[in-house]
Amino acid sequence: MITSASEEKPTIHVNTLGGFSIKVGDKEITDNSNQSKKPWCLLEYLVVFQKKDISPNELINIIWSDDPGVNPGGALKTLMFRSRKLLEPLGLPPQKLLVQQRGSYAWTQEYPTVLDIDQFESICTRAISQPHNGDDILKLCLEGLSIYKGDFLPKSEYESWVIPISTYYHSLYQKLVYKTVDLLLEREDFSQITSICQAAVGIEPFDEEFHYYLVYSLYKDGHTSQAIEEYNHTMDLFYNEFSISPSDHFKNLYKTIRSKEQGINTNLDSIQETLREEASGGAFYCEYPVFHDLFQLERRAIERTGDSIYLCLLTVSDLDGHVPKLAILNKAMEHLNYAIRNSLRCSDVYTRYSISQYIVLLPTVTAEKGEMVLKRITSNFRKQYNRKDLRVEFKLQPVLPWERSSESAIPL
């Protein structure tokens, strides 16, 4: 059998997602080397736009956009030489890979080249638009996710031509993750959802839905402590990076996890062991959904006991009453948290209420004692973080007893 010359030519595989590499058979070059950036930039641009001839002016504008004083002609010729040197380990003639003809530059058409972004886009187009949810679609989704190892050309992420392309493929990736998770939820394959979402938050740490399904899948797969740990990590991440908390939808998931039934257990020693708190000093910090339930419990208690309890609000602001800059606010809230925890009794409860506020429950105190406690907190805060452009304001208000309807009242 006679084989044509075109069939004998090796296929060049180019990866651009999560890093840049070119592979021919078992030979590969990557941008992980300490080589200068510009030769790689020329390679990236010509490979990505391999289907067209590129003029010298276009390349000069792309590569030396921040250096108008460069000698265009000489610099481009030198750069072409250096880029071809990078290709030598592949075992193919570099002059046949980076082609210069008719006054323009191009990536080879002589050797077939496969780009991961083309494969990824083709899979996304087929998988995301499919209305049915068969095993073949799930297989296609998983194949697409295996291709997306990270964002497009991460070492060139701030180049003007890279940004819109990276955004496009990143958006496709998010849609593909959502589609895959939906398919796996139908199959209750929580272990695989966990793996996919762990990879997804590594690539896009600020997508709340990725975190939500990671926490949910851990919880449904029986890893409750890991789910709570991941939830707390997400809360800290969103507070520290954006000065916001995740949505109520996410917080309700936490509440569901906390209220999970423990199953039948008649051994009280065992139950107490599972309920035991790790030893820690100071007041009890909890997430807002837990604080909400404790607040309701205290309201019910004072209806019967008549004890006084105060709800206290501490707010960090600048001297004009505005939320401080993020870096300053994060540090201030960290010190305020420490001051609250170490200024209260171990039976007192507090939580973070907003980006710049904590709320505290002070049972069995008078208004005067409550104000003394809050002054002690602000004083301890100042000892740790004494900035003249910040202030901590506090308010306190008595908690009113729970109002029971006459139909539900039970004689005591």
Automatic annotation (TrEMBL):
Bacterial transcriptional activator domain span: 115-258
Pfam families linked to this entry: BTAD
InterPro entries: AfsR-DnrI-RedD_regulator (IPR051677), BTAD (IPR005158), Sig_transdc_resp-reg_C-effctor (IPR016032), TPR-like_helical_dom_sf (IPR011990), WH-like_DNA-bd_sf (IPR036388)
Gene3D superfamilies, per the entry: Tetratricopeptide repeat domain (1.25.40.10), Winged helix-like DNA-binding domain superfamily/Winged helix DNA-binding domain (1.10.10.10)
Protein name from the UniProt record: BTAD domain-containing putative transcriptional regulator
Species, as recorded: Enterocloster hominis (ex Hitch et al. 2024)
Lineage, broadest ranks: Bacteria, Bacillati, Bacillota, Clostridia, Lachnospirales
